[in-house]
Amino acid sequence: MNIGFDGKRAANNLTGLGNYSRSLILQLSEFFHQNHYFVYSPKVKEAKQISSFFAKENIHLRLPAGTQPGFWWRSVGIRTQLLQDNIAIYHGLSNEIPFGIHNGNPKTVVTIHDLIFLRLPKNYKYIDRKIYNFKSRYACRFADQIIAISEQTKKDIIELYHIDPAKIEVIYQTCDDSFKELLPADFKETIRQKYQLPEKYILNVGTIEARKNLLLIVQAMTHVPQEYKLVVVGKKQAYAQQVIAEIERLKLTDRVIFLKDIPFADLPAIYQLASIFVYPSFYEGFGIPVIEALYGGIPVIAATGSCLEEAGGPDSLYIDPSNAGELANAINSVISDPVLAAQMREKGLTYAAKFNTLPLAGQLMNCYERLAKS
User: If you average pLDDT over every residue of the chain, what do you get?
Assistant: First the structure.
């Protein structure tokens, strides 16, 4: 079977949806190598992780034919190429599918990661919100199958777009396999020295923007023992200035460490050196950093209100994302109780098995095969 993918991010992005897209396609190519996987992108970035991805013998890059503008080809002109490549299933990996291919040839699948632009509209520019909503609504209406990455996202699709629940299947994401290996102490110590990491720290990973709610952790730190510092890994957006101002106001400058441009290969050790992982985001489609922490054997504290309970499982702790005191109490309960911390580590690792690669890839392939036969 020939399966096509929207490869704009797989062929160009080195984080986020780029990692997700490459990981998903690689898993399918390895576990179901009898198929051919065609990745359609208006351009391709020169980077080692992208070139090694396309080196796989059953993964094929497709660029626009002729002189078609990339944005037009990706949304409309791609239809001719899909027919030429005899594509049975076309999968839009990030909330959209091309226009006009809802005639059953090929069958179409769309992954909806989230509808946060509708849940928290103030976090988005007006024009971006309109474009995201138009593309997502179209994809949900016309795709033959919708993949939601969490039960919360499925509920949002049903409520906000009035889609038949029978059309939606929940298939969770996993994280990169490098996070699933518990690393030796000497390697972790090398990473500690490389970044001058403290002996005891609370970790937060993610873009520094208002929705991710780093400000709450900073405010909670005033009630956490002095020997614990906060390590933040993520790209700074405008919101970071508000966070920095609060750090200075609370006289926490010597207790908050920002790391940027961290090589992907170093990130698993940074997780596994942490005492606690804290992720108080106001809203998520799923929460991959929570999974990365669980696989690393790190106690997780996350926020209520979206899907993070699905990612973190019943033995992580959850707090109101507007209550710094509640977060501080949760952090202190883990710090002060080694038995609780050990239970969270052990049970978190057990729960993380729910997101192992093979069963999730098998669930997706079953979806494709069922759709191809319909």
Answer: 95
